Amino acid sequence: MKKKLLLESGEVFWGEGFGALDATDGEVVFNTSMTGYQELLSDPSYCGQIVTMTYPLIGNYGINRDDFESIQPSIKGLIVRELCDYPSNFRSQMDLDALLSKKGIAGIQGVDTRALTRLIRSKGVVRGMILDADASKEQALENMRLNPSPTNQVEQVSTKTPYAAPGRGLKVVLVDFGSKLGIIRELSRRDCDITVVSHDITAEELLLLSPDGVMLSNGPGDPQDVKGAQELIQGLLGKVPIFGICLGHQLIGLACGARTFKLKFGHRGGNHPVLDLKRNTVSITSQNHGYAVDSESLEGTGLEQTHIALNDRTNEGLRHTKYPCFSVQYHPEASPGPEDANYLFDEFITLMQQHPVKSN
């Protein structure tokens, strides 16, 4: 079926539909990963977004049962240059088209993804719609104008009820702002006793669980829209060791008085170099974020910068100078992407061991 991608700035890209055939709209972003489309599709941080894959052939190794990062994907749509109709891999259980159809996710192939990516890099991220080729352009643009993008993405993807991933080691409470399963896997490999809680838990409620440490997860949207998160972190600082990833990193910055801002087109891919200022080493990292902490706003916050992105010099890591608390903007659990930064989970274990929580 002929489809088109309509951007709110008026540009149109033509292609063929796959997956779910209903119209969909969202913020159009691009990801530079060459592989890992299954993990990307199921990453809750993509809630409300339509993702453009810059690698030209997508779907060539199919879909398997093991590589999902959430049970129910929250992505709004997928844009590819060429969809592979006949995947070949010993783990493949279905093709990408079948998965998107089952999950109600719209896709469009045959798009000039190079031109689209260059446009986003030039103009910045923009809302768009995947719709039938003969649908009214004027009506679609009017619908986007009258229906602004949602601001409750974290509420949409966070768990509604607590659940446990038991272990025999240190007790970690994972605050779910849209957590990937990769974070739970890495903590479980270190035998942590994990309790996953909703984003709207209070500091008092969380501390009643008697954790050895708190993990603040990744998640979608603007960190300034996450109600109650800053108060939660302020109530935990100095009382329990904290490790924040991606959105969790940004929320730590806000809670301590720093500012965040929206990047022009974000960092999304598995090949982003990050400099560790303490070690003077570079890691190739997996990233997926559209906002960043303003490095110029750190003075007087008690936070110091620990990592920077070598592509644009934006902030990629923070450490509190007084309390046991650190965070990174990138994804040490990868999924997909390199595992150069996996050691950060070991540093979190060490931090909890060095700062045991005092019982009341």
From TrEMBL:
<keyword id="KW-0547">Nucleotide-binding</keyword>
<dbReference type="GO" id="GO:0044205">
    <property type="term" value="P:'de novo' UMP biosynthetic process"/>
</dbReference>
<dbReference type="InterPro" id="IPR006274">
    <property type="entry name" value="CarbamoylP_synth_ssu"/>
</dbReference>
<keyword id="KW-0436">Ligase</keyword>
<keyword id="KW-0665">Pyrimidine biosynthesis</keyword>
<comment type="pathway">
    <text>Pyrimidine metabolism; UMP biosynthesis via de novo pathway; (S)-dihydroorotate from bicarbonate: step 1/3.</text>
</comment>
<keyword id="KW-0055">Arginine biosynthesis</keyword>
<dbReference type="InterPro" id="IPR017926">
    <property type="entry name" value="GATASE"/>
</dbReference>
<feature type="active site">
    <location>
        <position position="331"/>
    </location>
</feature>
<dbReference type="InterPro" id="IPR002474">
    <property type="entry name" value="CarbamoylP_synth_ssu_N"/>
</dbReference>
<dbReference type="GO" id="GO:0006526">
    <property type="term" value="P:L-arginine biosynthetic process"/>
</dbReference>
<dbReference type="GO" id="GO:0006541">
    <property type="term" value="P:glutamine metabolic process"/>
</dbReference>
<feature type="binding site">
    <location>
        <position position="288"/>
    </location>
    <ligand>
        <name>L-glutamine</name>
    </ligand>
</feature>
<comment type="pathway">
    <text>Amino-acid biosynthesis; L-arginine biosynthesis; carbamoyl phosphate from bicarbonate: step 1/1.</text>
</comment>
<dbReference type="Pfam" id="PF00117">
    <property type="entry name" value="GATase"/>
</dbReference>
<keyword id="KW-0315">Glutamine amidotransferase</keyword>
<dbReference type="InterPro" id="IPR050472">
    <property type="entry name" value="Anth_synth/Amidotransfase"/>
</dbReference>
<feature type="binding site">
    <location>
        <position position="290"/>
    </location>
    <ligand>
        <name>L-glutamine</name>
    </ligand>
</feature>
<feature type="binding site">
    <location>
        <position position="221"/>
    </location>
    <ligand>
        <name>L-glutamine</name>
    </ligand>
</feature>
<comment type="similarity">
    <text>Belongs to the CarA family.</text>
</comment>
<dbReference type="GO" id="GO:0004088">
    <property type="term" value="F:carbamoyl-phosphate synthase (glutamine-hydrolyzing) activity"/>
</dbReference>
<feature type="binding site">
    <location>
        <position position="250"/>
    </location>
    <ligand>
        <name>L-glutamine</name>
    </ligand>
</feature>
<feature type="binding site">
    <location>
        <position position="45"/>
    </location>
    <ligand>
        <name>L-glutamine</name>
    </ligand>
</feature>
<keyword id="KW-0067">ATP-binding</keyword>
<feature type="domain" description="Carbamoyl-phosphate synthase small subunit N-terminal">
    <location>
        <begin position="1"/>
        <end position="131"/>
    </location>
</feature>
<feature type="binding site">
    <location>
        <position position="291"/>
    </location>
    <ligand>
        <name>L-glutamine</name>
    </ligand>
</feature>
<comment type="function">
    <text>Small subunit of the glutamine-dependent carbamoyl phosphate synthetase (CPSase). CPSase catalyzes the formation of carbamoyl phosphate from the ammonia moiety of glutamine, carbonate, and phosphate donated by ATP, constituting the first step of 2 biosynthetic pathways, one leading to arginine and/or urea and the other to pyrimidine nucleotides. The small subunit (glutamine amidotransferase) binds and cleaves glutamine to supply the large subunit with the substrate ammonia.</text>
</comment>
<comment type="subunit">
    <text>Composed of two chains; the small (or glutamine) chain promotes the hydrolysis of glutamine to ammonia, which is used by the large (or ammonia) chain to synthesize carbamoyl phosphate. Tetramer of heterodimers (alpha,beta)4.</text>
</comment>
<feature type="binding site">
    <location>
        <position position="247"/>
    </location>
    <ligand>
        <name>L-glutamine</name>
    </ligand>
</feature>
<feature type="active site">
    <location>
        <position position="333"/>
    </location>
</feature>
<feature type="active site" description="Nucleophile">
    <location>
        <position position="246"/>
    </location>
</feature>
<dbReference type="InterPro" id="IPR036480">
    <property type="entry name" value="CarbP_synth_ssu_N_sf"/>
</dbReference>
<protein>
    <recommendedName>
        <fullName>Carbamoyl phosphate synthase small chain</fullName>
        <ecNumber>6.3.5.5</ecNumber>
    </recommendedName>
</protein>
<keyword id="KW-0028">Amino-acid biosynthesis</keyword>
<dbReference type="Pfam" id="PF00988">
    <property type="entry name" value="CPSase_sm_chain"/>
</dbReference>
<dbReference type="GO" id="GO:0005524">
    <property type="term" value="F:ATP binding"/>
</dbReference>
<dbReference type="GO" id="GO:0006207">
    <property type="term" value="P:'de novo' pyrimidine nucleobase biosynthetic process"/>
</dbReference>
<feature type="binding site">
    <location>
        <position position="219"/>
    </location>
    <ligand>
        <name>L-glutamine</name>
    </ligand>
</feature>
<dbReference type="InterPro" id="IPR035686">
    <property type="entry name" value="CPSase_GATase1"/>
</dbReference>
<feature type="region of interest" description="CPSase">
    <location>
        <begin position="1"/>
        <end position="170"/>
    </location>
</feature>
<dbReference type="InterPro" id="IPR029062">
    <property type="entry name" value="Class_I_gatase-like"/>
</dbReference>
